[in-house]
Design a protein that fits this description.
Chain lengths: 808, 334
């Protein structure tokens, strides 16, 4: 109650500061006409002065202007802009629908575009990606992947060949906040990182924030990927799907009650296991029953209760399952893992100027490794290792737009985390090794934030924000000390202030400079024993021994639009410093901490990253796409690693370039291409070898001290879509016939793509092996017949693929 | 587990090629393989590491053994003994082993006792660096309960491809109700199809009681495949054949079964030794060094609280835990 009272006091003060009596507000929702989907990021502005606003995540906008007559423009790339003549002498609620921009005329483009957001906004390091656009970009095995598209943007690097992992401005994969309809997705990868968990057919919009993180977001150091799911067509039923080389997908959407409520349900499953089963399940094959598959299901319903209230319920469920069977020794292994999320959200309009969204979110990630070996009658051995994290999350986010000069956001967020950092149960025969209690850790993470986008003058705009975050354990953490053979208890609380500032200064109407400073704290950590994100990685909370990660980022950029905003150019420089980064101590394995806390398993260190990013985008015309280039350097400092000397981060790359283009050749054919080039990945090489117990072992030295060959690749794709038409014969009163053509209900398209066109053998990893150099093949370490050699392994040569998509 | 992930990923592998890598030269390090066990004299094998791509010749291999080192073992109450190079007095030994001068005849039941800590000190003059290198390490012989096992017996193996004469050793073990009890379990075939000169590793060499603390349970031990089995197969074939040939002791074998408690630092070394196979060439692994307990060097200095059982591989064999076999000398525990 006290909090609500304070909010009202706050609103009153803001209203007092900003309020002027002769101003009125136009507000409402903007949607796509055909599907009724709310549109995110639509520019709504006064044509004469360019003063305006944009629609938020829920398609809502609010624009307050002095009394008068206005031509208000609603503009969104890819859709036809509309202009509404408005006489503003009272508060107005105007909902708008935008149509597909079938015929793009020069006139529409000129009058329909405002000064572009690229130059105008105070945001830095933010990119909004349209899903329809990325569907035309070539991808491996025809699997459209939003995360892999994100990797093509400057400042965002992949984890290596085929990996969907993200490394943003020198940050690790755990430093990205990946949100699906506001629910955190803890492991965004299928198939050990080769594919992301997001089914592009169910996704509407992706907002990527790699620097200058607004105060609304927190809990991670490096980036935010805010992914919004489609709401479902609220006008008509629609089915679409695709059949690809390794997976197929199907989406069904439609109105529950026209213009009031709709649903979408979308599923995807791979069939590598089904394709391989005739070979694996041959009689006598010991591996019959082995296989791998993943599937995911995305669903959402929404209901418009009134003009002021709307509710959404969205969910995601995905699993990867790897089965390994060997009947020769009666071993069965099953490794299932995956995410589940549910988000209930309620949009409410307190007034035309005050929008609030309240969310209740549940998210769960779990991993299990189950092994069963039946060796002797009655002597079955079973081991089950499981880990995971789940969150109960509540959020209240206010958006207050008192006038075009202020966009105020404030709100609160509370997350109850439950960590299951690694438990094991086992059974041999009749003896059960299940621990009395499953070891879990519980934490509360809270935040309050306030930010304002302030237009100070015609040339200066500032985003000022502050986030107050806190983290505490509910319950004690058990720490096992093996050397002293005892359990101790500890707990700790953390509270921090995180300032977020950015500013834009217009040099002239088509160019601006921007600067940003952000501080972030991250209270949960991903502990990984390997160089890439694996499902076995554990999330662990901060404690008295594991302090929260902290980063400070400074950025400065120059933004320029050319040729009537056809081209957007930006060049950004950044410097980021990070503290309390964690790495596993050498020789630690996740099972060391089974059923207990892993607080003593880590080394702690710092890191820094700096770089320059160039982005040239073309969003309009027959040829669209972008060129991104990053020069960067990322270093880590750990007292206990690399003998205390600094070392390059695993994904430190000096140069990273990507060129993405799409060309509309004709109404039927669209061509696209991607070229990427980056400095080679780092690797840690062996320095010495020695003999223990008759076997040769290796001593590695300088961490990430070796640089593999550069990575480069060209991908091409062609999409064929011929609009199917239905003829209708109408008999006119005079007896003659008139034939009319109408768009057929079933529409299909083919996507042909070639990954790695010139079959470049990009290094995936290097390994060392002793090669027998004797003619007889019986060399040994003693007689010099075994010689150590280095080998480079490449995966994914040229891979053509074809996907058939349909919609009806 | 990473092995299975690697198995999956390998399906995608398109090609590999040999590459040339220039490594910076670095100094060689002393490598220790040292053991102290209750009632037995300590012994140490000393070698040195070599540059990774340094060619090894037959002569060069002999050079990795360290001669003329000064080695001593000191108990935590100050009792100290010196170890000498037995290769000097028994040239038939193909490599130098450091042990007390009376290692074969002396009684070490007073010096090597359960519950004590032992510090190993080594000094060696490295001609290549023109410097004396000193390394040391402390281990302890854990104070194990007597008898450590409740019972030992033999059962026939079962499953596809398993033959009638394939057997397993089974034990019933009551883990003490203290955390961190760690074990190294090995065997040596005394008679039968193959005789072993040294103790051999079971597939799971090092075990600790993270999930079994304080429990009484029955467990069997599977043997490592023979070296020949591995050499005769390619990688994927090896994957199969290792599994196929694992876990096999043959009836009519006579096996000396060693069940030894070790301290946590030694356990961590042997665990890393056992697991390092999984990270060799695995693209997902950070390169893993063995977790040595030698200060200034590589390798391990292990104290064993050991119990031995002579087990006839016969399904009628059942031994009570207190039917211990008492080894006579250092050769038997080697």
């Amino acid at each position: 109650m006290k909090r609500i009272f304070l909010i009202y006091i706050f609103l009153f003060l803001i209203n007092y500061c900003f309020g002027q009596n002769n101003k009125y507000t136009i507000s409402g929702y903007v949607q796509e006409e055909i599907s009724g989907e709310n549109l995110i990021g639509v520019s709504v502005y006064d044509k004469a002065t360019y003063k305006g606003s944009t629609t938020n995540q829920y398609g809502f906008y609010s624009l307050t202007l002095p009394e008068g007559e206005y031509d208000v423009v609603y503009s969104f790339i890819g859709l036809k802009s509309i202009t509404k003549r408005i006489e503003l002498n009272k508060d107005l609620r105007i909902n708008a629908s935008l149509k597909e921009d079938v015929i793009v005329t020069e006139e529409v483009q000129v009058t329909g575009e405002r000064q572009d957001k690229n130059v105008e906004s105070s945001e830095m390091g933010q990119i909004r990606v349209n899903v329809e656009k990325i569907k035309k970009i070539p991808v491996i095995l025809g699997e459209i992947d939003v995360l892999k598209t994100a990797q093509l943007l400057p400042g965002i690097q992949s984890g290596g060949e085929g990996s969907a992992g993200l490394y943003v401005r020198g940050g690790g994969p755990d430093q990205n906040l990946i949100l699906l309809d506001e629910a955190t997705v803890y492991n965004a990868n299928h198939l050990f990182g080769f594919f992301s968990v997001f089914n592009a057919d169910a996704i509407k919009d992706i907002n990527i924030i790699k620097g200058g993180m607004p105060a609304k977001y927190g809990g991670r150091l490096s980036s935010v990927l805010d992914i919004s799911m489609k709401e479902g067509n609220n006008k008509k039923y629609e089915t679409e799907g695709g059949i690809g080389l390794i997976s197929s997908k199907l989406t069904f959407q439609g109105p529950i009650k026209k213009n009031k409520s709709s649903f979408i349900i979308s599923g995807r499953r791979t069939y590598i296991d089904i394709l391989a089963s005739p070979f694996l399940n041959k009689p006598g094959n010991a591996f019959a029953g082995s296989g791998y598959y993943f599937y995911d299901l995305t669903t959402k319903v929404n209901y418009k209760i009134s003009d002021k209230d709307r509710i959404f319920l969205s969910g995601y469920f995905g699993r990867d399952v790897f089965n390994f069977v060997n009947t020769n020794n009666n071993i069965k292994i099953k490794i299932p893992w995956g995410n589940a999320t549910t988000a209930f959200r309620w949009n409410h309009l307190f007034s035309d100027k005050l929008f609030v969204n309240t969310s209740l979110i549940f998210t769960d990630y779990r991993f299990a490794f189950d092994i069963e070996q039946r060796a002797i009658e009655g002597g079955t051995f079973q081991l089950n290792i499981f880990s995971g994290i789940n969150d109960w999350n509540t959020k209240v986010d206010f958006l207050y737009q008192p006038n075009p000069k202020h966009t105020v956001r404030f709100g609160t967020n509370f997350i109850y985390h439950r960590f299951t950092p690694g438990n094991a149960t086992g059974r041999v025969g009749d003896v059960d090794f299940s621990p009395d209690n499953i070891f879990r850790q519980y934490s509360n993470e809270g935040a309050l934030y306030l930010s304002d986008d302030i237009i100070i003058s015609d040339v200066l705009k500032v985003h000022a924000g502050i986030r107050y975050s806190s983290f505490q354990h509910s319950g004690d953490i058990r720490v096992r000390n093996y050397l002293l053979n005892e359990l101790t208890l500890n707990n700790d609380n953390y509270r921090h202030i995180e300032p977020r500032l950015s500013a834009r200064y217009f040099i002239n109407p088509t160019s601006s400079i921007k600067a940003a400073y952000t501080e972030n704290y991250q209270y949960i950590h991903l502990a990984n024993t390997s160089s890439v994100s694996l499902p076995t990685d554990l999330w662990v909370p901060s404690s008295s021994k594991i302090e929260p990660k902290h980063s400070k980022q400074y950025a400065l950029g120059y933004f320029k639009n050319l040729k009537n905003n056809d081209y957007e150019v930006s060049i950004e420089g950044y410097y980021k410093e990070m503290t309390n980064l964690i790495e596993y101590k050498e020789g630690i394995l996740p099972e060391d901490n089974s059923n207990t806390s892993s607080d003593d398993s880590f080394h702690f260190g710092t890191g820094d990253s700096y770089g320059v990013e160039l982005l040239i985008q073309k969003n309009k015309g027959k040829t669209t796409g972008w060129l991104g280039y990053t020069w960067s350097k990322t270093t880590r400092y750990f007292d206990s690693i690399n003998n205390g000397f600094s070392f390059p981060a695993k994904y430190d790359r000096r140069h990273d370039l990507s060129l993405v283009t799409t060309y509309e050749l004709s109404k039927k054919w669209t061509l696209s291409g991607v070229f990427v080039y980056s400095t080679g990945n780092t690797a840690t090489l062996p320095e010495q070898r020695y003999v223990i117990d008759g076997d040769v072992y290796t001593e590695y030295t300088e961490r990430n001290g070796y640089r593999m060959d550069a990575y480069h690749r060209l991908d091409l794709a062609a999409t064929y879509h011929k609009e199917r038409k239905k003829k209708k014969i109408i008999v006119l009163p005079d007896g003659s016939e008139e034939i009319t053509e109408k768009k057929a209900r079933l529409q299909t398209s083919w996507t042909f793509s070639i990954y790695n066109v010139y079959s470049r053998q990009n290094p995936y990893f290097i390994y060392f092996a002793l090669e027998d150099v004797t003619a007889q093949g019986n060399g040994s370490i003693e007689d010099g017949g075994l010689v150590p050699k280095a080998y480079q392994v490449s995966i994914f040569p040229i891979i053509p693929s074809v996907t058939w998509n349909f919609k009806f | 587990m990473k092995k299975y992930i690697l198995f999956l990923i390998i399906l995608f592998i398109s090609c590999q090629k040999e590459i040339d890598i220039d490594l910076l030269s670095s100094n060689n390090q002393i490598v220790v393989e040292g053991v102290i066990e209750q009632n037995m004299p300590p012994y140490v094998l000393l070698t040195k590491s070599v540059g990774f791509f340094e060619p090894v010749t037959e002569e060069g291999f002999k050079d990795i053994f360290l001669k003329d080192a000064i080695v001593s073992v000191e108990r935590d109450d100050g009792w100290k003994i010196d170890l000498i190079d037995w290769n000097d007095s028994i040239p038939e030994l193909s490599y130098p082993i450091y042990a007390p001068s009376d290692a074969l005849t002396g009684n070490y039941s007073n010096f090597s006792k359960l519950g004590y800590k032992y510090k190993l000190n080594i000094k060696w003059y490295d001609e290549s660096q023109n410097d004396t290198i000193e390394v040391n390490s402390i281990t302890s012989i854990p104070n194990m309960p007597t008898p450590p096992l409740d019972c030992v017996w033999v059962k026939k193996a079962e499953g596809n491809g398993v033959k009638d004469h394939h057997c397993y050793i089974w034990v019933q073990y009551s883990d003490p109700d203290t955390l961190g009890n760690s074990l190294i379990i090995t065997y040596k075939r005394l008679e039968g199809t193959r005789k072993d000169n040294f103790f051999q590793k079971f597939i799971e060499l090092a075990r600790t009681d993270i999930i079994a603390n304080g429990k009484t349970f029955q467990v069997y031990f599977a043997t490592e495949p023979s070296k020949e089995d591995e050499d005769n197969d390619n990688w994927l074939g090896g994957f199969n054949s290792r599994r196929d040939s694992a876990g096999i002791l043959l009836d009519a074998d006579v096996v000396l079964f060693k069940f030894a408690q070790v301290d946590m630092k030694s356990y961590k070394f042997w665990r890393s030794f056992e697991r390092s196979g999984g990270s060799k060439g695995n693209p997902f692994s950070e390169p893993m060094n063995l977790v040595s307990n030698i200060n200034g060097g590589l390798g391990v200095w292990t104290g064993y609280g050991a119990a031995y059982y002579e087990v006839e591989i016969d399904t009628t064999t059942v031994k009570e835990g207190n039917e211990l076999y008492q080894p006579i000398n250092i050769i038997e525990i080697f």
